[in-house]
Amino acid sequence: MWYDGPVRFKTLAPAKVNLVLRVGPRRPDGYHDLVSLMVPLDLADGVEVAVSARPGPVTCSVPGRPDLDGEGNLAARAARAFRERFGVDRGVAIRIEKRIPVTAGLGGGSSDAAAVLRILARAFRIRDRRALAEVGLSVGSDVPFFLGTGPAWARGRGEALSAAEVPAQDLVLLYPVDPALAIRAGEAYAWLDEARGDGGPPLPRRAKAYRPSLLGNDLEAPCLERRPALRTLLGLLVGNGARAAIMSGSGPTVFGVFPSRKEARRAAREIATTGGGVEPKVQVTAVRTVQRQPGVTPWRSPRSASSQSVRTSSRPTSRSRSTTAS
Residue 63, class by beta-carbon neighbours within 10 Å (0-12 exposed, 13-18 middle, 19+ buried)? Predict the structure, then answer.
């Protein structure tokens, strides 16, 4: 059922934004029920996985980011969880080319984990999507989304997914690079709980099609209260032509929705060039939403006599543009 020798695989791990994020009261298990519309972007990490022919450890390296190397990386945790669930002991070496900002509300770590799971499922002929999603959920709430096919409404912790129809959206992402503005997901949800007290509004019904009037994020208000500099960035986006601007996920990245790719790129250049004359310093990226998650490209190791390659999957990152402004 499996490849009989060492193999290597590549794929892309796209970022995401939450066009809609509604958060219910905290559950007894500490999580929150959600209704969220998530869409993948043409900004992506590159993920490569080498599977050994012999038993061995799981390793993970992120060139240029030694702080992300090792067993604590979500991608490495996903590989270990996969091996335990499906009885695999072969060595797994993961290499990630990091393009998505870290701890940014863009799902980069979860997407890397899902990319590894998609690759290992391909390598070991795992076709049980439900079991794979359960492994993903054990690693992180956003991982099941990245195991799906594209834009989706998510409910529960994020594991109950239904496909969504979302026209292509042209966005500009502003990621504040100052570590003092970082927000961890646990902080954002705790701040929301503190602001709400013991309750919270009921979650809305799931919508089947995206409408601009649905755009919103329940985590935004408490995060803006503690990171007021983000308000300036939202205003900067609107001032440069965004129809609307909100925070993505648990932040601190904010994004604006623009009428066209041309307008998004123009605004990104303007903000990157002038910075709007404001602080904080930001990484500026013009992106577009995509309709499908990337595919996996397998090939046999060059050391194998039966080595052969196949055409690589599409590379959505070629359309995104990222610069830094102060």
Answer: exposed
Q: What is the CA radius of gyration of the chain?
A: 20
Scanning 30-107, the segments in alpha helix (DSSP H) are 74-86
| Residue 112 annotated among the catalytic residues of the structure | no
The structural domains of the chain, with segments of one domain joined by +, span: 7-298+317-325
> How confident is the model at residue 314, as a pLDDT?
35
Q: pLDDT of 201-231, one tens digit each? A: 778 776 667 888 999 999 999 999 999 999 9
The pLDDT value given to residue 299: 53
In CATH, the number for domain 7-298+317-325 is 3.30.230.10
Of the residues 16, 42, 45, 170, which is catalytic? 16
Q: What is the pLDDT of residues 243-254, one digit of tens each?
A: 999 999 999 999
Question: 32: which 2 tokens?
Answer: 């929150």
In whole angstroms, give the CA distance from residue 297 to residue 301: 13
pTM for this predicted structure: 0.88
* Cβ atoms 52, 8 nearer than 8 A: no
From the list 45, 142, 170, 218, the catalytic residue is 142
For the chain, the residue count is: 326
Contacts of 41 (CB under 8 A, 6+ apart): 14, 15, 16, 17, 106, 171, 287, 288, 289, 290, 316, 320
Higher pLDDT, 203 or 184: 184
Helix axes 74-86, 108-123, angle to 10 degrees: 30
Contact 253, 105 (CB under 8 A): yes
91-105 pLDDT per residue, tens = 999 999 999 999 999
* 16 in catalytic set: yes
**How far, in Å, CA of 166 to CA of 274, rounded?**
32
- pLDDT in the model for residue 318: 39
Calpha distance 210→17 (Å, rounded): 14
The residue type found at 148 is G
